[in-house]
User: Fold Protein GrpE from Longispora fulva.
Amino acid sequence: MAASPTGGDRQEDEPVVIRDKRRISADGAPAPAAEAPAVEIVEEDSTQDALDELTRDLQRVTAEYANYRKRVDRDRGVVAEQATGAVLAALLPILDDLDRAREHGDLVGPFGTMSEQLAQAVAKFGLVGFGEKGDPFDPKLHEAVAHFTSPDVTEATCVDVMRRGYLLGEKLLRPAMVAVGEPAAEEDTAE
Assistant:
């Protein structure tokens, strides 16, 4: 006698019998057992839950990626604007020297042409100069280095410009350095 793998004793001559306990329906297809539909419903629910969770994860990741792309594009624009501002700020002393030379009449001939070309080039990048005599004083744009009372003005006005100011778009690169003329106080005019 030999020991069977299941632990029982069986004889070598004894045939192995396999019994099929599946049920067969009348149309020839195997009929599902009574417990099978309940198991399939549970599996279907868990599959649908997993699908819903994966769909939500995909939507979240897609939204995060779209936000990331927008943020990177915005950051690139800010970096480009800062780099442009840094280069133009480095050119401001040169523009000041050219303004002073122009006031003294030293920019004639080819130097005058080069000065105009430089002014046009920086204007293409959005650099705008401001600060002219007669402009109303704005403390956000002007740096007052001197104050005078003047009977000729009705409000605080720039009466002299020592150094022009510059804007890059809406960003202030440098305030204008000005002398401010203020109207005479009412007490002074009454006397």
Q: What stands out?
A: The longest strand covers residues 142-149. The helical segments are 36-103, 110-124, 186-190.
